[in-house]
Amino acid sequence: MRELFNIISAKPEEGSPVSRFFDAVERDALVAPMYDAAVALGTDIYKKKLPNCNDINNSHSVTKFFIAAAVGRLCDEGRISLDDKVTSFFASFPPDGNERWKNVSVYSTLRHMTGLGEDSIKCGVDAENSNEVIGEDFLSDTFRLPLPYEPEQYRRYSDAAYYLLGRIVSAASGMNARDYLNEEFFKPLCFSQWAMACCPMGYPIGGGGLFARAADIVKLGVVYARGGELFGRRYVSKEWIDMSKSSDFALSRFRDSDIWVKTGAHGQIVAFTDKRDSAVAWHGCASEDDHGKRNDRLLEAYLALLDEVRPK
Predict the structure, then answer these.
(1) pLDDT value for 132
(2) CATH classification for the domain delimited by 60-208, as one of 3.40.50.880, 2.30.30.240, 3.40.710.10, 2.30.110.10
């Protein structure tokens, strides 16, 4: 398929705003590994691959942004309602499951407000030892997790919530969520290469595990920056994007800026601004202590770029 975007390898003239942003990326690579980065200005995507970079890289929790978009598309089509209970999509419920899950809605799950508490020890389905901790049936084990709080009472960020949403996408669409994302997002957006980590039963981890290039994951940021429609194709509604911002569906605001972001565990990101028709993405592997600081540093560099090329 012909690439819809204008993909430009980052070799802009010295001293240009784009060049200065990628200079900041290279400086950050001296702090901890940086793999690749991409900036979209309109439908021009500038990309940079750093030394020793894999062709595709783990986006970790940026994956949640894509799962939420899939839920949004199915909501727009009327195949999912935010009020639906998460258990309603499955024919069976484990005999020893926690009955409180039957009160949890899709809306609360998107917001990480299922009722999980801080002492829930098996929320990380994207962990190295997940099979040892959980076993093969991640769905049943999720429904066995304790819920000490009522939905919407307490926010407990977890990969388990978005694994569950991925399973709901599979149930509501009639195809594996991996295939649904491919048909509705990856193929029409011309992703060059991608892969998804899956549970032993073949369903995407959901909370993490999307492997792709920054120059591809940035494209969903462009879709959101343009109100959900791009090149004549509607991916999600503007109403869904607005609700994602106001309700924290895998999105949060960067300080008081017009930038909306979804971050990953080790300093990955996709971010966009609908005010200045732009998006940005990168992959790296910063330490737990520094990955938030990395995102802050590079988002500040991105804001500086935008102020030069897309004034407020």
Answers:
(1) 59
(2) 3.40.710.10
Numbered ranges of CATH 3.40.710.10 in the chain: 60-208
Nearest CA to 39 out of 67, 7, 74, 81 is that of 7
Say if residues 240 and 78 touch (Cβ distance below 8 Å).
Answer: no
Give me the helix-helix angle, 63-76 and 159-173, nearest 10°. Answer: 40
Is pTM beyond 0.90? Reply is yes
pLDDT of residue 7: 92
CATH class of this structure's domain 6-55+213-226+253-309: alpha beta
| C-alpha–C-alpha distance, residues 172 and 170, integer Å | 6
Q: Which residues of 70-102 are buried (b: 16+ CB within 10 A; e: fewer)?
A: bbbbbbbeebbebebbbbebeeeeeeebbebbe
User: pLDDT-derived band of residue 212, with 50, 70 and 90 as boundaries?
Assistant: very high
CB-based burial, 118-147: b 16+ in 10 Å, e otherwise: eebebbbbbbeebeeebeeebbbbbbebeb
257: left (phi over 0), alpha (psi -120 to 50) or beta: beta
Alpha-carbon span 110 to 86, nearest angstrom: 11
Cα gap 272→261, rounded to integer Å:
7
Describe the strand order of the beta sheet including 194-196 as a list of residue ranges: 57-58, 210-212, 194-196
Phi, psi for 11 (deg, rounded to 5): -135, 50
Amino acid symbol at 33: P
